[in-house]
Amino acid sequence: MHDTQKTIGREIRYSGIGMFRGESSSLCFKPASLNSGMFFTRVDLPGCPKVAAHVKRLFGDNKHVCLKDAEAEVESVEHLMAALAVLGIDNLEVEIHGREVPAGDGSALLFLNLLGKAGVVEQKGERKVFIVKTPIMVNSGQASIKALPSEKGLVLSYTLDFNGSFAKKQSCEILFTEDSFRREIMSARTFGLSTYVEEFKKLGLGKGVTDDNSILIHENGEMTKPISGKPAELRFPDELVRHKILDLMGDLYLSNMAIQGHIVAHRSGHSLNVQMAEKIATIAMHR
Ligand SMILES: [Zn+2]
């Protein structure tokens, strides 16, 4: 039995503030037909250009994941992509008025809840699954990702390590099921390192950061709310590594395929995650 493609049952709308630019944008999630894929439609731009939620449309600095097609851009897609991966949605139109996907609470809960309300429905067609047959590797400096064959389905392992400063080393390994990700991963929030705060301010980014949607990590290991400076209230003792797995899941889904394999990531961020997604998409094309 093969898995079937999925879309949502009805339209659903949401408006909110983007974390990086602090600008308001509104979304309308719409069902899409079999084999149409996941794509954004910039309804605020002339001609309503479309941008595919695919690794071939990536661009930018990799602090957040941005897509671009011709002149149309959509920013901060990673947590939405993670929700789509977990729900197994293959076909979806996201009308967006504005250029950045709203932040919600800094995790993927907003999108899980919205798409859950819209209902996930099966379509009459097989979904694309990428089975890792031989090891695939990407690395950059001390960061690396390996994709290895796995008989269990999709397993994600992540090790977070800042060489002794900021947070202590955290590791997490999880076998993917919709249920395990809902319970263990999807509510883990974004975090930022205090050393990047000034750089972000200079670039005019991080304007949508609030005390509730992110955690600020200081060099001495202290974790605070980013605006008030009060101690952070963590959702899990190892919320950071769980968020890293959430990001990894979302970034890999830019390959637009479910993956069967063991993904072993060490210190990776968006730029390396999407390199792995790119490799997977390229290998799949040549099979
Ligand atoms: Zn993230």
Number of helices: 6
For the record, what CATH class of the domain at 4-127 applies? Answer: Alpha Beta
The CATH superfamily name of the domain at 4-127 is lpxc deacetylase, domain 1
Radius of gyration from CA coordinates: 18 Å
Largest sheet: 6 strands, mixed
H and E order: EEEEEEEEHEHEEEEEEHEHEEHEH
- Percent of residues in helices comes to 10-25%
Please state roughly what percent of the residues sit in beta strands, choosing from under 5%, 5-15%, 15-25%, 25-35%, 35-45% or over 45%: 25-35%
Structural class: alpha+beta
CATH architecture of the domain at 4-127: 2-Layer Sandwich
**Mean pLDDT, all residues:** 95
**Which regions are unreliable across 5 or more consecutive residues at pLDDT < 50?**
none
Shape: globular
What would you say this structure looks like, in words?
With 287 residues, the chain is an alpha+beta fold. It has a domain at 4-127: 2-Layer Sandwich (Ribosomal Protein S5, domain 2), CATH 3.30.230.20. The protein has helices at 78-87, 109-118, 178-184, 197-203, 239-252, 270-285; strands at residues 4-8, 12-17, 24-31, 38-42, 50-52, 58-59, 66-69, 72-74, 92-97, 120-126, 129-131, 136-140, 143-148, 154-160, 170-175, 190-193, 214-217, 223-224, 258-266. The strands form 5 sheets. Strands 11, 12, 13, 14, 15 and 19 form a 6-stranded mixed sheet that branches. Strand 2 (12-17) and strand 3 (24-31) form a beta hairpin. The longest helix is centred in the C-terminal third of the chain and has 16 residues, at 270-285. The radius of gyration is 18 Å and the shape is globular. Bound molecules: zinc ion. The site of zinc ion (ZN) has 5 residues, from helix 1 and helix 5.
